[in-house]
Amino acid sequence: MTERQLVSAEQLTVQEMAQICYQLATRAYPNGSPWRQATFMADLALTTTHYELLWWQHDPIGFISRSTVLDETEITNIAIVPTYQHQGHAYWLLTACLAQLTAGTVFLEVRASNLAAQRLYRRCGFKRIAIRHAYYHDPEEDAWIMRKIIN
């Protein structure tokens, strides 16, 4: 496999998917995974969530998760391991996720200091609509709330 491939959560057990997502998040986020493996397992058990792994050259290198209720979707995680960052993988993963949505509003949060992610989200049509003060911890930081409307 030399091309990008999406693997949905339904193709693995909840335990396998939670473990892979936890490991990827631990590698991808500078301060480690913001969620424990048990949190991923609980989230995967919900009927409103959808997870997809990004595979590249035989290995999982990232994932995206979302929660949808009626016509509102929240991107809850998007992570690419550092070795593969800044190579278009996050853009590909996010646009593939957005292409699966037919209409509605998509929300996400991003650290105020995460300029690369903010550029990615703006490139994909997200706009900043609000700030959540002191939302993130380790270190404490504001979150930008961003929104994209899909027609």
What key phrases describe this protein's structure?
single chain, 151 residues, alpha+beta, Aminopeptidase, 7-stranded mixed beta sheet, 4 helices, acyltransferase
What does this structure look like?
By secondary structure, this protein is an alpha+beta fold. The protein has one domain (4-150): Aminopeptidase (3-Layer(aba) Sandwich), CATH 3.40.630. It has four helices and seven strands; from the N terminus they run E-H-H-E-E-E-H-E-H-E-E. The chain has helices at 14-28, 37-44, 89-99, 115-123, and strands at residues 5-8, 49-56, 59-69, 72-80, 104-111, 127-136, 141-150. It has a seven-stranded mixed sheet, with helices on both faces. A hairpin with a 4-residue loop joins strand 6 (127-136) and strand 7. The longest helix is centred in the first third of the chain and has 15 residues, at 14-28. It is globular and about 35 Å long. The model has no long low-confidence stretch (mean pLDDT 94). Its EC number is 2.3.1.266. Residues 7-151 form the N-acetyltransferase domain. Keywords: Acyltransferase, Cytoplasm, Transferase. Pfam families: Acetyltransf_1 (PF00583).
